[in-house]
Amino acid sequence: MQNRRQILNLAAGFAAASVLAGSATAWAGSKGRTGKFSGLSNHVTTGKAELTSSSVVLFNDFSLDGAPDARVGLGRNGKYDAGTDLGALKNLKGKQSYRVKNGVNVSDYNEIYIWCRKFNVPLGVAKLGN
User: Fold this and answer.
1) CA dist., res. 59 & res. 53, Å (int)
2) Is 39 helix (H, G, I), strand (E, B) or coil?
3) Burial bucket for residue 109 (CB in 10 Å: 0-12, 13-18, 19+)
4) Distance CA 41, CA 86 (A)
5) 116 pairs with which residues across the strands?
6) Cα 7 vs. chain centroid, distance in angstroms?
7) What is the mean pLDDT of each successive set of 10 residues along the chain, which is 130 residues long?
8) CA R_g for the chain
9) Do 51 and 68 touch, CB atoms closer than 8 A?
10) What is the pLDDT of residue 31?
11) Residue 74: which of 103, 105, 111 has the closest Cα?
């Protein structure tokens, strides 16, 4: 009788773990919101970007003509939020990703920015769709 209970408990544990793993896999595979960059402040910024629940991804077609202290961050309705700074731009061209800081609610934002911290101006913005 005890062996049967142990087997049933073990089976229930595996079933619960399987359900949880399936939920995590579904979440991890979900796509975020995407947008296409437009240049600002006399800079040429092009390409697509995506905002997920935990990261910003600049796609292979991303390009910035150059600027000092370029950063990646988020904004809403034309206003950059410096509190969402995700770090220095890694490369002027190509695919790259940036982790969203803990405590940042990505649903509060509808734009991805390339921002020049040195001169406090936007270099490009991608307005996000659904």
Assistant:
1) 17
2) strand
3) buried
4) 21
5) 70, 121
6) 43
7) 53 42 40 96 98 98 97 98 98 98 96 98 94
8) 20
9) no
10) 81
11) 111
Between CA 125 and CA 34 the distance in angstroms is 12
- Altogether, the residues listed in the chain come to a count of 130
On the CB side of 79, how many CA atoms lie within 13 Å of its CA? 5
pLDDT of residue 4: 53
Phi and psi at residue 96, to the nearest 5°: -160, 155
Helix, strand, coil tally for the chain in percent (to 5): 25, 40, 35
- Asked if 112 and 74 touch (Cβ cutoff 8 Å), the reply is yes
> For 52, how many CA atoms within 13 A lie in the half-sphere containing its CB?
13
Assessment of whether the complete model's pTM goes beyond 0.85 = no
State the DSSP H helix or E strand holding residue 79, giving kind and residue range, or none if neither: strand 79-81
Q: 107 to each of 26, 35, 80, 129, how far by Cα in Å?
A: 19, 15, 15, 12
Tokens 């991303």 -> residue: 62
Rounded to whole angstroms, the Cα distance separating 107 from 52 reads 9
H-helix segments, the chain: 2-28
